[in-house]
Amino acid sequence: MWTFDQYLLRNFFYVFFVCFVAAFGLVVTIDLLENLDEFMLNNQGGGALSLLISIGTYYGYQAIFFLDRGGASLMVIAVMVVLVLFQRSGELHPMLAAGVPMYRVLRALMIGPVLVTAVLVANQELIVPVIAHAAHGGRGIQTGEGGQVEPIYDYSTKISINGEKVSLAESQLEGAQFVLPAPLIVHDLTIIRGTKAIFRKAAGQRPDGWVIFGAAPQFEELALTPRGQEIVRKVGRSGELFIASPVSCDQLFKRKSSSNYLSTSELLGRIRNEAYGPLAVQKFVTQVHGRLTQPLINLIAVLLSLPLLVRRESAGLVMDSGVCAVAQGILFGMMQLSAYLSTSGIIAADLAAWFPVFIGGAMAAWTRDMIRS
């Protein structure tokens, strides 16, 4: 049976790879046709080889993000395709006639999705956070204009952060503006402006914060309170200022989607951090629960597909595939409905995340006895 399991696993991974290449290839084709001019403009006469390298680099990053977003759906599609082909080729009936239970026959199609889910989790936790800056990057090697800044308020220090352009790759804020509140940080409301500010992560005794270059007013001109002296410091020989704040660059650009590229540990850190407001924290909590439930939903979707595609009273492969697609649509609809209810504040974030797991698990258990034996 191990040889047969290997055969099914090979087919599953082959179909998954083909589905991924076909789907992502279609995305690349459409996007490249629409944005080839942008690649050529940013290439700035670098030649054909330079253009191909920039295109390959950009879509290499996008392939990782595409796998993160669509890997679960492609996994379920791969299971459905393998089962349909397995039945069309007549390979299922001899196994059942030999007395092998159906779930033992299809064991490989349960192991394969577990392995794919593990890869998706590793991709989401280890790879995506490292290359998150490429998610919103421009097309081409010369793109460095930065993105439009979305001002943010640091709830822990009461400091407002703004600027002209932000670069996620360099953790840099151009035309930086930091509004120091009175009387918490300074005795009079003060706006510190700088040519640029670079975010530095905590190291040793130094907390997270921003190093401001070309700061005005300078450190000696600030009327800092005792609390302000802990937050605002002078660093470097050129009079740069350091302002302690855990608010990083990703919160200054496309804030609604930037947290999708954080690891779960980073999300938990932000939930415990006082710098973020209640709405942001609620969103982080929802995302953490989503990270916990997504692997379960992936496996539930597979367990829901198996009995519907090899039903005891089958009406044909086409009808079985249609019923399976409808069941998957219901599961997906419940996920979207739960997310909407959570965002609207109608139900709690944890309940919204686990509701599809409970309903989907009940559906999978209910359809279990439908499987052919």
From TrEMBL:
The keyword Transmembrane applies. One of its GO terms (biological process) is lipopolysaccharide transport. Coiled coil: none annotated. Pfam families: LptF_LptG. GO terms for cellular component: ATP-binding cassette (ABC) transporter complex. It is found in: Cell membrane. The chain crosses the membrane at residues 12-33, 45-64, 70-86, 106-123, 346-366. Keywords: Cell membrane, Membrane, Transmembrane, Transmembrane helix. This is Permease. It is a multi-pass membrane protein. It comes from Planctopirus hydrillae. The keyword Transmembrane applies.
